[in-house]
Amino acid sequence: MNKQKLDFPIKCFNIDHYTLIVPNAKVVSDFHQNVLGYKLINTILVNAGSASEGKHDMLNYVLGWPNNEKGVMVVTEGLTKESIFHKFYEKFGQGIHHVAFEVDDIEDIFELLVTKGIEMTSDKILRDPLSGLRQFFISNKYTGVFIELIERKSETEDKTSEKQGFFTHDNMSGLANTMKSYLDDPNLKNDDDIKSLDKTNYFEVSECIEVDRIDNIQINVAEVQSAKNFLNSVLGFNIEGEKMINPHEKDKFLRLSEIQDSQNGVIPVELALKTFNFEKSKNILESLNLDFTVQGGSIKLEKEYAGYPLTLLHD
Prior knowledge:
- The chain is α+β, with helices and mostly antiparallel strands.
- The chain folds into 2 domains: 15-182, Roll (2,3-Dihydroxybiphenyl 1,2-Dioxygenase, domain 1), CATH 3.10.180; 211-314, Roll (2,3-Dihydroxybiphenyl 1,2-Dioxygenase, domain 1), CATH 3.10.180.
- It is 20% helix and 31% strand.
- The strands form 2 sheets. An 8-stranded mixed beta sheet has the order 2-3-4-1-5-8-7-6, with helices on both faces.
- Strand 3 and strand 4 form a beta hairpin.
- The chain is globular.
């Protein structure tokens, strides 16, 4: 029986993870763990090419979302001045670097995107030969943020690649290296002046904010309609007013907002979490002396805490 030929729109399932690039990953990781109730799954040190063999230039905290057995956030910091993500941070600032969606048949999807002229950051899929984990990035030119497609369908008996927060050093290093073309100087010099890992405990509180789930991700782009069309025609999102709804994950949505020419330093991606107990959330933030604003039934925090602008929504 012949396999049906794949065409647009492709089928994206759940958000697998989103990744931040920040100047201090420990601060941002602790905020999410201690204040928002994310759970630490793993800490991964990687050498993406600027450090000598046996050393590392990239730190990654892998955190599970509250009340979720699949979704993950990765907090990334470049540990040398020559490292890819330190240079990326210096050029573009901190914030959410990419959002990843889980897919099936990733080889067929990659071939389709190539055939249709969609720009990726690499000419091949990054594949871990042991677990079968496969990943690649779509250029940020279409939606204002890099979109990663990831297939976790395991090729091992223990289903390693399907576990929450499973990533490999080689895939992380390989994906990082696909970012070189976005840097002013893609040539990495050897740099063994490696930043020591921060051991400080930040944002210590007796209890955390009660987070229900991710409500929406707002992407700030120059061309809203173009981004909507891409998400709709290529990735299969439904356009419902300002919302872009993934028909396979209807409990959260993407929102697109237009960046005006006069707006400098706008963080490309913002996040909104649905939470319980407005007064408790406010009291916890006040006890930590954090700056925030209240607008109706929501609390807004600037980027210095979460690594991106964050809104806490309350019904």
